[in-house]
Structure prediction request, 209 residues.
Amino acid sequence: MNFTKQDILDCDRIKRLNIINSISGIKPGNLIGSISDKGTTNLAIISSVVHLSSNPPLIGFIMRPRGEVKRDTYNNIRENHLFTINHIPTSHIEQAHYTSAKFDTEISEFDRCGFTPEYIEGFKAPFVKESKIKMGLKLVEEIPIPSSKTTMIIGEIQQLVLPDNAMNETGYINLEQAGTAGIAGLNSYYKLQFLDSFPYARVEDVPTF
Ligand SMILES: Cc1cc2nc3c(=O)[nH]c(=O)nc-3n(C[C@H](O)[C@H](O)[C@H](O)COP(=O)(O)O)c2cc1C
Prediction:
């Protein structure tokens, strides 16, 4: 099968959306936790989280076009500059999926989708109790991407929470052991299987293949 750009554009909207959303491969499964100034919590599934820098520790995600659609996550982050990123546990993929429904602003996806808010003292945004790996971030930058009418939201990690046994002494985090889910497209969820790890790739150490 071979698609030209024109073939892609000729697809109906849903098929095109599914193709382009899946084609980049497995994406990390995360829930963004936030809270409004009025105190209503919000949870939204997001598959576009990416790490940007370790010093300072910066993580970004892509916020889809806002326009006429209301975006509680975006509004909450703008209000108090805080949000959390919580790995989706494979045990909760269905609940996580349904956080994408367009609930009214005053309805919390925590309540409606069966997640428990959890707080760290001094950090206003809610974490997801059911997630084993989670971080609390402070908004540092918003970058509009005109070509896609999206916005990259960049946060600096203020808190990182994970089980004692999930990380080894060199900082490697075993995502299979943590039960973190992966996402393909807009509705397919995967569990992760650790295959192997390799040392830093120096030219002189590259094996002969
Ligand atoms: C699998 C999946 C991945 C998603 N990834 C993103 C994403 O990366 N960025 C985004 O803006 N919306 C994404 N969404 C859509 C949001 O979850 C959805 O718009 C949500 O309702 C936003 O909630 P809010 O209005 O409470 O902020 C995704 C939805 C699904 C089902």
Q: What stands out?
A: The first helix runs from residue 5 to 10. The chain has one domain: 27-192.
